[in-house]
Recover the amino acids of this structure.
């Protein structure tokens, strides 16, 4: 079947099998930032934005993306102009292996889009579904809080 | 203790060199660039804990459209070896082959299929017919060595390849012991003797990226394996061994790695990928599912530890007897060396005059243990530090003062260093740097150890606990790291290292070391790690070695390159070589005249005395200087629900010079949270047939942001004279604290000792007599 989505600002049509999940289709289409950590909706490494909300691509059938607007980290920033969140995680030493980072960034972006002045507890709640085994989360949370401050300015 | 040094790059928290590329979501991991026409692998796994394969019929699987190859014990070479990624000859027994006629745990390999898609491969698996003769399993490590227990490794070709005890006929995978002085006499002299048993559980690293590897035929008889590994050179050697082909036919590339923590110090899937690549002549990709990662990759060795200690009323230690029973599961990966480290990374911390240590690692029909951050020190520190807390209270001393009185000092040694190595004798060493006293002082202050404790209100009680820790830095006399540096036209340098950055930031740390020596910014150092065709050898990322061992190789190579540059520049400036220094990207003479490094490079490449300015250096260490650490926690125990909540955690650590303080903190924070998660909730649960019941993140809980306590890291600088710019290791030590610290804090809160982990609400309520 064909599915029609807007991915990172571009309208595209993808071929997909009816049983396929969105994660597999995204990776096949070259959006390598969307990671497969468990394929069961538990780790959050495949978090993307679907119509602005953070969702796990592995829990969506490709067909459920029909007509939706999707955002992956590929669209968040560029080497010349990284997003403030990307700048912040780099500066705070919040990236260790980096495998969970794209999902973390999008969960954080969904939070900041909705709540520009989150508290520490708000950030913890928003990132709760994104597992990281390297950092102990501390520097990630600090980076998101710092980014929120910079974005408000 | 601290030598004042001022560095331009070392000691600064420069951004991790790969972090922006990772934050931008670049396709940097193994799974991110699969070639067109790639085949996918799935593995058929044993449903039985212990069984013989009587027959296997793959004909229906092979006839499925889209299946390219099916491999099993009948059509691949049988080469006994170990999966442990260690230096050759390995201290782990050769008790494993690609596919065996026997399966030894639920999840053991039976066959593998390569097919056009994962779905086709799965379908083919379901059509493989296997006839098993089910055998009685060994599921309790305490009964593994009993007379009449089923023998797990009855194959005649299982063997140890170094002269160490190995008795598969009684399920003994490894044994180590040592003794100093008359321990019984020491217990007789003691005013207080404690003799307790501690039990810690099966748990897993759970890197968020599971094990994955891509094989590609290179059409010249060679294959390339891109793999998520901590040990690229060991992968090359062990895959060559498994396939009975020369090392020269294998090219191993390590891309960015999505975490390892020891799980990827193991050649776990690359043999299958290599076999199928050669057999099909096509690219082959294999990625473990999360469920497979849990059951079929590696785990921490679960242990039963008996610890007996004696002490005088005045706090003087008289004797210690540490007895370890380690469960290595179905194969003996790291069985011996983890057992050794229970003694060598724990006993030297205190001045025991009499020591007995013995450890048995036994086979069971349960998932396979391996290297996991902490590597035996986690388990033995758990027993030791809880018992010291109990001991201090028994003689009426503050647990902090008791440790301050008894810990090893600068200039001292321990007989354990010489007696216990990794598989054999160790290396005698003196402590040249130790900041433990300062760690204890600063930690005590940060947690408020001496403050008047708040009166508890209601059923929720608060308590404080602490522990002291040590680890090592590399395996002395065994492990080797090397580096190659060459200079480019613009004054940049390629730094090629075999050391494997698995997300820790070692590329950055090594770049900082090179940059410091060469007088340039980190951005001028282009790091490549690791590629067996390109980078020089390194044993890989394990044993807390990269900064200390590989870092010194980098420093030596950089010093050689710096000498070549100074000589070249001296000629250009017409000054003596000794008057030239490298600074801010220039070679500067004493008289103030200077040339840019770019000018030096251009001249040497194109104009005069033409040659490549470059150097290679290797390093092997004669000692393994321990980092030291003091950990403190404040916990709340709900006496009605049994739930423990860590409120605050303070980790003060002496890692010598922190080459990159932010990255060092990150290592501590990650290790501490992993340790807290292990202490409170992580545990493999098995059914009566040895099947893991909770092999998903939904059922095997690891800590997330909402569970996070306040964690404070205090870096206590010392200067280790044998390390690069004074550095020691930092990556492992932090995980050893939470098990004992939380148990000690719970005792402080509610007066019961938890000696079995994890400290679940059930165990807490049971200890409180409420269940």
């Amino acid at each position: 079947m064909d599915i029609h989505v807007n991915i990172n600002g571009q309208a595209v049509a993808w071929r997909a099998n009816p049983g396929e999940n969105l994660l597999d289709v995204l990776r096949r289409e070259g959006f390598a930032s969307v990671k497969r950590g468990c394929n069961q909706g538990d780790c959050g490494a495949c978090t993307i934005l679907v119509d602005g909300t953070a969702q796990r691509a592995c829990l969506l059938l490709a067909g459920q993306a029909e007509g939706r607007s999707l955002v992956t980290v590929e669209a968040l920033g560029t080497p010349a102009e990284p997003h403030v969140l990307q700048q912040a995680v780099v500066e705070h030493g919040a990236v260790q292996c980096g495998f969970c980072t794209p999902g973390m960034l999008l969960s954080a972006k969904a939070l900041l889009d909705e709540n520009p002045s989150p508290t520490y507890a708000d950030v913890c709640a928003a990132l709760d579904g994104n597992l990281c085994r390297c950092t102990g989360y501390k520097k990630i949370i600090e980076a998101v809080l710092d980014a929120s401050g910079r974005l408000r300015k | 203790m601290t030598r004042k040094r001022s560095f331009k790059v070392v000691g600064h928290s420069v951004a991790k060199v790969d972090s922006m590329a990772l934050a931008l979501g670049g396709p940097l991991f193994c799974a991110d660039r699969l070639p067109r026409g790639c085949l996918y692998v799935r593995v058929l796994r044993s449903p039985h804990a212990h069984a013989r394969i009587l027959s296997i019929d793959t004909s229906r699987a092979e006839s499925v459209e889209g299946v390219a190859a099916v491999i099993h014990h009948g059509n691949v070479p049988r080469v006994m070896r170990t999966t442990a990624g260690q230096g050759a000859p390995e201290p782990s027994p050769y008790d494993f082959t690609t596919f065996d006629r026997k399966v030894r745990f639920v999840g053991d390999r039976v066959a593998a299929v390569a097919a056009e898609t994962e779905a086709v491969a799965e379908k083919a698996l379901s059509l493989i017919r296997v006839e098993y003769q089910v055998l009685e399993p060994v599921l309790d490590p305490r009964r593994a060595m009993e007379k009449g227990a089923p023998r797990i490794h009855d194959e005649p070709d299982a063997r140890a390849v170094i002269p160490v005890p190995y008795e598969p006929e009684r399920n003994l995978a490894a044994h180590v012991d040592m003794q100093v002085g008359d321990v019984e006499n020491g217990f007789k002299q003691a005013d207080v003797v404690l003799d307790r048993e501690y039990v810690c559980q099966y748990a897993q690293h759970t890197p968020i990226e599971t094990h994955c590897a891509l094989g590609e035929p290179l059409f010249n008889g060679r294959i390339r394996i891109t793999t998520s590994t901590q040990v690229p050179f060991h992968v090359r050697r062990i895959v060559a061994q498994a396939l009975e082909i020369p090392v020269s036919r294998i090219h191993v590339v390590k891309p960015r790695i999505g975490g390892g923590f020891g799980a990827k110090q193991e050649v776990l899937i690359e043999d299958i990928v290599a076999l199928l690549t050669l057999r099909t002549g096509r690219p082959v990709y294999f990625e473990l599912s999360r469920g497979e990662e849990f059951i079929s990759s590696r785990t921490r060795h679960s242990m039963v530890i008996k610890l007996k200690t004696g002490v005088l009323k005045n706090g003087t230690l008289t004797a210690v007897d540490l007895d370890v029973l380690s469960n290595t599961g179905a194969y003996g990966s790291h069985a011996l060396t983890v057992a050794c480290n229970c003694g060598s990374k724990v006993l030297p911390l205190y001045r025991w005059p009499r020591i007995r240590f013995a450890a048995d690692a036994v086979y069971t029909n349960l998932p396979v243990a391996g290297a996991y951050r902490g590597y035996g020190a986690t388990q033995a520190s758990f027993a030791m530090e809880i018992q010291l807390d109990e001991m201090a209270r028994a003689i009426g001393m503050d647990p902090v003062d008791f440790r301050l009185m008894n810990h090893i000092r600068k200039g001292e040694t321990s007989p354990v260093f010489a007696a216990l190595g990794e598989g054999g004798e160790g290396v005698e060493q003196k402590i040249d740097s130790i900041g433990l006293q300062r760690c204890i002082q600063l930690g005590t202050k940060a947690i408020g150890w001496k403050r008047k404790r708040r009166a508890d209100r209601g059923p929720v009680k608060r308590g404080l606990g602490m522990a002291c820790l040590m680890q090592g830095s590399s395996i002395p006399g065994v492990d080797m790291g090397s580096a190659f540096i060459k200079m480019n036209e613009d004054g940049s340098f390629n730094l090629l290292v075999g050391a494997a950055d698995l997300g820790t930031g070692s590329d950055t740390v090594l770049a900082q070391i090179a940059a410091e020596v060469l007088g340039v910014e980190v951005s001028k150092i282009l790091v490549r790690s690791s590629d067996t065709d390109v980078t020089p050898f390194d044993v890989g990322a394990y044993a807390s070695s990269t900064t200390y061992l590989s870092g010194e190789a980098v420093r030596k190579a950089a010093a050689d390159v710096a000498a070549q540059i100074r000589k070249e520049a001296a000629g250009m400036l017409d000054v003596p070589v000794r008057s030239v220094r490298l600074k801010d990207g220039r070679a500067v003479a004493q008289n103030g005249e200077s040339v840019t490094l770019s000018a030096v490079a251009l001249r040497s490449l194109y104009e005069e005395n033409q040659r490549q300015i470059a150097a290679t250096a290797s390093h092997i260490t004669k000692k393994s200087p321990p980092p030291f650490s003091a950990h403190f926690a404040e916990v709340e125990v709900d006496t009605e629900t049994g739930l423990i909540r860590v409120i605050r955690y303070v980790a003060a650590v002496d890692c010598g010079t922190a080459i990159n303080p932010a990255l060092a903190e990150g290592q501590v924070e990650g290790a501490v949270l992993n340790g807290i998660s292990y202490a409170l909730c992580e545990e493999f649960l098995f059914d009566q047939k040895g099947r893991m019941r909770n092999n998903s993140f939904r059922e095997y809980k690891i800590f997330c942001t909402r569970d996070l306590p306040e964690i404070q890291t205090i870096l206590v600088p010392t200067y280790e004279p044998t390390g690069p710019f004074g550095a020691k290791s930092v990556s492992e030590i932090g995980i050893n604290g939470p098990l004992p610290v939380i148990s000690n804090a719970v005792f402080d809160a509610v007066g019961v000792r938890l000696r079995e982990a994890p400290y679940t609400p059930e165990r807490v309520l049971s200890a409180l007599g409420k269940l």
Observations:
- The CA atoms of residues 194 and 391 of chain B lie 7 Å apart.
- The mean pLDDT of chain B is 97.
